Every structure is written in C-alpha cells, then in structure tokens.
Amino acid sequence: MSKPKLISFKLCPYVQRSVILLKEKGVDYDIEYIDVYDPPEWFLALSPTGKVPILQVEDTVLFESAVISEYLDEVYAPALHPADPIKKAQNRAWMEFTSPMYMDTFNIMMAKDKESSDAAIKALIKNLEGLDKAMVNTPWFNGEALSLMDISAAPLFTRLAFYKKHCHLNVLENFPKLKTWSDELLARQSIKESKVDGFDDMLLMRMGKIGTYIHTANS
Ligand SMILES: N[C@@H](CCC(=O)N[C@@H](CS)C(=O)NCC(=O)O)C(=O)O
C-alpha cells in the first residue's frame, strides 16, 4: 500500500484527528502544511471544500475528517470502532456531536468583546453538558478500549487545556467526568505528539492579531 499524504494546517483540530489516528495505527505517512488563510492554488484544485484535512491516497483525494477517520480505521489495524453495529452507530452519532464543538472553541477565539465571548462560551458549555451525559464509561468513551470517538474528541480537549492555561477559562471545572477523560486523552502519546511544536505560541500570536477578548482580558 502506498504512503498516504495528509494536507494540514498547524492549528486545525480536524487535521489533528487524522494525525492521532495515523499515529495510533503506526501508519507511515507524509504530511504537508499549508496556510488556510492563504491557500496555494494546487490545494484549492485538490480540496472540494477548500478545507483541510485532505488525505491523498494514490490518485484519490479524501476530504472531511470524519470520513478520513472511517477510511483509516477500515484500512489499517487495529479497528478502533466498536464491532457491535448499534454501539458503532451510537459512537458515530457522538462523533458528529463533537464536530461543531470545534466551532465553539473557534468562536471563543474570534470573539473580540465580552458579549460575544460569553455567548460563545455558553454555547460550548451547553454542548459539554450533552457530552458529559454521554460519558458513562471510564477511562475511555466505550470503557476499556480507546476508540475513534475518543480520538474525534481529543483535539477539543487540547484547545480547552490551552484556554485554561493561557486565558484562565476553565470550562471543565463543573464536569469532573470530562476532566478525567481529558486527562487520560492529553496524557496519551499519540495525542501529545499530534500537537505541533510551537502550537501554544502560534495560537497566542493569532489571538493577539484577532484581539480575542479572553486573551486581552487576561493578559
Ligand atoms: N468539516 C470539516 C471541517 C474542516 C475545517 O473547517 N477546516 C478548517 C481549518 S481548521 C479550514 O480548512 N478552513 C479553511 C476555510 O474554511 O476556507 C472536517 O471535519 O474536515
């Protein structure tokens, strides 16, 4: 099988999902970074949505992180989805649930005043409440075995940890189960390695340029 190639943007949580999965499965892959704010022509020609991640597999281009995850899980062992169809469907539903939560964290970064910042934080907390109810097992979403669902949610906790460390925003303080899950995820080798070098500094610089409310209010 030829080496898959991932097209990435260093701060993108959706690409981070693919990276974690490739690392968990020990896949030999290539990665190329682009700037999504100034994308090269060759990338726009390849990506139907103009978004990362895309995964090039020989002559085929896959897009949408959830689809890329499903593909990688089918092709490279060990399978990380539960085998039971109803459990698998339930996991897929919760994976869908986590996807827009990345927009919540993005909206917090884009919020330049208290009102819009509070609204974005409120939206995130509402979704965290939903996720908290679904988190009935420990240490992972399905219990003993790490699954695609854990990996789908992991980049979210990378960002929440960043907000806690640099912006004094601790949205997990009232969610002990999610905090335990977050600690497990963030201690995992593949997840630690999926965070690019200089991640915090790049994000802080970006927030400085945007004028992110929780960044300026806390510095
Ligand atoms: N639903 C997509 C979302 C991907 C996405 O929003 N990627 C962002 C970077 S984190 C992007 O490429 N944005 C560029 C744009 O919107 O033009 C997925 O799961 O792959």
Give a description of the structure.
Helix content is 58%, strand content 7%. Helix 1 packs across helix 7 (148-167) and helix 4 runs parallel beside helix 7 (148-167). A hairpin with a 2-residue loop joins strand 3 (54-57) and strand 4 (60-63). The chain starts with a strand and ends with a helix. Strands 2-1-3-4 form a 4-stranded mixed β-sheet, with helices on one face. The radius of gyration is 17 Å and the shape is globular. The chain folds into 2 domains: 5-75, Glutaredoxin, CATH 3.40.30.10; 85-216, Glutathione S-transferase Yfyf (Class Pi), Chain A, domain 2, CATH 1.20.1050.10. The chain has 11 helices and 4 strands. By secondary structure, the protein is an alpha+beta fold. The structure holds glutathione (GSH). The site of glutathione has 12 residues, from helix 3.
Outline the fold blueprint.
Elements: E1 5-8, H1 13-24, E2 30-33, H2 41-46, E3 54-57, E4 60-63, H3 65-75, H4 85-98, H5 101-110, H6 114-134, H7 148-167, H8 176-187, H9 189-194, H10 199-210, H11 213-216
Parallel strand pairs: 1-2
Antiparallel strand pairs: 1-3, 3-4
Helix pairs in contact: 1-3, 1-7, 4-7, 5-6
The structure holds glutathione (GSH).
Residues 9, 12, 14, 36, 50-53, 64-66, 99 line the site of glutathione (GSH).
